[in-house]
Amino acid sequence: MITQNLEGYLEEIYQLSLEKTTFTPQEIGEHIESTPAMLFRILKRLHREGYIQYYRHGVIGLTKEGAELGKLIVKRNSILQEFLFIINSEGDPAEEAGRLESQLMPETVFAIERLVEFFKQDQDIMERFTRYCDNQQEKKEEQ
């Protein structure tokens, strides 16, 4: 089972892998706020769990499993951010999505994805919902 912390690192590594297939720990470190020692421990763990592969000269690449999970993590984050945008969440969608990600079952994320797609397909309902939220906010401010 992958932890939320490991998911965060794997997500960043996956994003990096979209630009190039292999990279060094230093390149990863440029994208992740972490001490070199902590980064090394995380990379060792990701390797042990089969998500990254070490190559010659300290070069790293994602395994098939790592790429698949990284893609899933990025997609889940995107779905949750869209959902938070649709419901007019007042917080930072990226930060809130990061908090929600590890707390939700995959089935729940799939249900949220269907809801997001439904709203995106029907602009009228999206506008009605936005007006409803605006009206509720006005009522809240009047109290």
TrEMBL record:
Domain HTH dtxR-type: 1-55
Keyword terms, alphabetized: DNA-binding, Transcription, Transcription regulation
Residue ranges annotated for the Iron dependent repressor metal binding and dimerisation domain, each copy included: 63-126
Entry-linked InterPro entries: DtxR_MntR_Metal-Reg, Fe_dep_repressor, Fe_dep_repressor_sf, HTH_DTXR, Iron_dep_repressor, WH-like_DNA-bd_sf, WH_DNA-bd_sf
A Pfam family this chain is assigned to: Fe_dep_repr_C
Gene3D superfamilies the UniProt entry points to: Winged helix-like DNA-binding domain superfamily/Winged helix DNA-binding domain
Molecular function terms, GO-annotated: DNA binding; DNA-binding transcription factor activity; protein dimerization activity; transition metal ion binding
SMART domains, alphabetized: HTH_DTXR
Family statement drawn from the similarity comment of this UniProt entry: Belongs to the DtxR/MntR family.
Protein name: Iron (Metal) dependent repressor, DtxR family
